Description:
Number of helices: 13
CATH architecture of the domain at 251-356: Alpha-Beta Complex
Oligomer: single chain
Shape: globular
CATH class of the domain at 251-356: Alpha Beta
Structural class: alpha/beta
Radius of gyration: 23 Å
CATH superfamily of the domain at 251-356: Succinate dehydrogenase/fumarate reductase flavoprotein, catalytic domain
Amino acid sequence: MEEEIIHFDCLVIGSGSSGLFSALKLAEKGFSVAVVTKRSVNESNTRHAQGGVACVIDRSDSFAEHVNDTLVAGDNLCKREVVEEIVESAPKAISDLEKYGLHFTTRGEIGEKDHFEDYDLGKEGGHSKRRVLHAGDFTGEQIEDTLVSACKQNDKIKIFENHIAVDLITTAKLGWMGEDFILGAYVLDIACGRIKTFTAISTVVATGGAGKIYLYSSNPDIASGDGIAMCYRAHVPILNMEFFQFHPTILYHQKEKSFLISEALRGEGARLLKRDSSGQMIEFMENYHHLGALAPRDVVARAIDNELKRSGQESVFLDITRKNRDFLQLRFPKIFEKLFSLGIDMSKDLIPVVPAAHYSCGGIQTSVNGTTSVKGLYVVGESACTGLHGANRLASNSLLEAIVVPKTAAKNISASFNLLKKNRPSGKIPVWRSGNATNSDELVVVSHNWEEIRKFMWDYVGIFRTNKRLERAKNRIKNIRKEIEKYYWDFYLSPDLIELRNLASVAEIIIDSAITRKESRGLHYNADYPDRDPDLDGIDTVIRKPYR
């Protein structure tokens, strides 16, 4: 039996941009904040984001155009009022990041000396204008480092590294009567193997996405869908998980399995090429979309997937050799350096690329201020589904959402905190009990189930789906989940076992969501439903764990 109980005003689970931004905004309002993160505080999906933050800055651009581009990319499934609020909040959120010390690249820094103070705005797929602010080609890393530094300097914030959340604690899960309130979370201290009870008036889930649910992904290993699975077990509705975005251009190389080649390359003129039957390199995207290589990501990823399956080739290629070496080293320093270390000079050589799982457009149902169906529980970032992305995320809208929504969530928490504290049930929260669990050294079971899930998700629930493939995936996941649940309750918890359980749960949610949607739309392509059904415009897929 674990007895340590730790209390803060607010608990934040996750340390990516949305989690750290939430912590900072809550601390600025005077709350004590615990940030729980399962690895180092610096390790997150944010760190791997290359592109930037979409924001209307230039006078030739407008909020209306950014909103329209987002709605078009989202394929009639975005919530317009959410899109408008987030897009119009972007400049102030950017200003906040800059106050914390973030520096965005200017035109002077890439060689345009007459425009040294002007932002260098990138253009990416689906955008009608240049509006992507970036810090070199490692924007996410710069944002993460900036926010980590700001959090460490704030004495209202305490960071708990190597602490992995096991489950949320809610009044409904404890069987208490009345309205459902969040009470905190059970958290495994990885270093000592103890389960601690974290309690708080408000809890913010900011655990990122679930890219590691697929065999090939741009995401780091931490992206196992923890927050989505925990909220599902707490009976919070999960929306639109069939819309999993596959980034079109992940480096295809035997020494690098998940290095992303930013869409910004195509924004700067990179062409997508394939090798034809005579061995010649030719462009092909014009056959799929009038925007060519800058079409929305779902179109480009499906086009590449189709070309590879038709030809039997292992990759297609990006060609940006029309740009000079100096420009490429200034504009894409990290990509240039990584490729050069692998023997690829992007100023002279073609870059082999393939699609890979990248971003979940669905997630836990929230409002634009992060609120959920459970009182005091907020969800922000990739774990959430606010309605911004619809059926397909517009490039660089993710980091935008990750800094706008935490700010609105903190404002809502501040306004409702006293009422939450007053109405929150005051019963004793039971500590975690291990029961009859024992030690286990059967790590091969965890590893085998993890790899099996990732493989059949890639084969059956990937870019191209059919009803038969989805049915096969459903049968497989049902059996695997039964095995995992038995293993989970029989043995002491480990980070691998917790992540496996979450990953299996999210896999089943994605499968159920894909089976439920009887059409092809955006990122969900089912060959048995080739056309979008206009009667389903604006209709979400909802998966909710039933009460028993």
